[in-house]
């Protein structure tokens, strides 16, 4: 489906039934924005013709990252999280190609995809189908933002172990369905807990581009949900955005600092 539309600002691919060329519903929401020169679209074929390519490389310590060069839209990279039962792709990117698929197959392929929030849905259905129509896990609280039909599994509640040792936690930061993934080596957070430029810290926002802070009640709930889990590393949404040690303490200190500045 190389001609389906992809928003140039957020990078989310739309199906024909949900597509309105005038606007991207995800970007029209106050947590994102429409580009200053208006709404523009591309496609997988258009990105390929423009010279974009998939990138698969280590994201230390212990994971493999998947991205696009040159970057597209928000520029996030996804993470391949290994374990019994197969690899999980946490978050997604707007582009894939045969070389990237082959490279991931050499690393064991993918058994499931899990999404943190709508801005990182990317071309998730294309990714699912490229690896055998694998399940795509989206929290049910964000159901309205899924813009293309496929093997999407909406889940409810606070936590869900989707494969042995890989547990989704609905922290509710940034979006009501905002989700992080715990595995024995750490916590993958996208920008639900975003690793900032000073990589000893993370931060929390309702809207990043529009600088709307997250509420204290939401942050407090999120911390209580991750408290039972052990983790020493936090992997954020972009290359190199990783808290490499003492991450659980860094998360608590970051929340304390953030909440102090709200008062």
How is this structure best described in words?
Helix 5 runs antiparallel to helix 6. By secondary structure, the chain is α+β, with helices and mostly antiparallel strands. The model has no long low-confidence stretch (mean pLDDT 97). The strands form five sheets. Strands 3-4-5-6-7-8-9 form a seven-stranded mixed sheet, with helices on one face. Strands 10-11-12-13-18-19 form a six-stranded mixed sheet, with helices on one face. The chain has six helices and 19 strands.
Number of DSSP E strands = 19
Low-confidence stretches: none
Please state the overall shape, judged from the principal axes of the Cα atoms. Answer: globular
What is the count of DSSP helices, taking H or I runs of 4+ residues?
6
Helix content, binned percent: 10-25%
Average pLDDT value?
97
Order of helices and strands: EHEHEEEEHEHEEEEEEEEEEHEEH
Radius of gyration: 17 Å
Biggest beta-sheet profile? 7 strands, mixed
What strand line-up does the widest sheet have?
Answer: 3-4-5-6-7-8-9
Structural class: alpha+beta
Ends: how far apart?
A: 49 Å
Task: Report strand %.
Answer: 25-35%
């Amino acid at each position: 489906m190389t001609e389906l539309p992809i928003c140039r600002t957020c990078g989310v691919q739309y199906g024909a039934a949900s597509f309105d060329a005038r606007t991207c519903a995800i970007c029209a929401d106050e947590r994102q924005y429409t580009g200053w020169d208006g709404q523009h679209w591309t496609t997988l074929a258009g990105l390929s013709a423009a010279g974009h390519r998939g990138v698969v490389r280590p994201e230390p310590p212990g994971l493999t990252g998947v991205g696009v060069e040159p970057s597209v839209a928000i520029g996030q990279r996804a993470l391949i999280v290994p374990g019994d039962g197969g690899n999980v792709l946490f978050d997604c990117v707007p582009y894939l190609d045969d070389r990237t698929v082959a490279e991931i197959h050499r690393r064991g392929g993918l058994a499931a995809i899990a999404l943190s929030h709508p801005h990182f849905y990317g071309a998730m259905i294309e990714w699912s189908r490229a690896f055998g129509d694998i399940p795509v896990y989206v929290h049910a609280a964000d159901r309205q933002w899924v813009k293309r039909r496929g093997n999407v599994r909406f889940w409810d509640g606070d936590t869900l172990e989707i494969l042995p040792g890989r547990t989704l936690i609905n922290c509710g930061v940034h979006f009501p369905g905002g989700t992080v993934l715990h595995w024995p080596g750490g916590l993958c957070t996208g920008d639900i807990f975003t690793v900032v430029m000073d990589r000893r810290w993370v931060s929390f926002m309702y809207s990043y581009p529009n600088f709307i802070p997250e509420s204290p009640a939401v942050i407090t709930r999120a911390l209580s949900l991750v408290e039972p889990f052990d983790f020493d590393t936090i992997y954020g949404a972009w290359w190199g955005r990783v808290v490499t040690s003492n991450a659980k303490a860094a998360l608590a200190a970051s929340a304390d600092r953030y909440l102090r500045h709200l008062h």
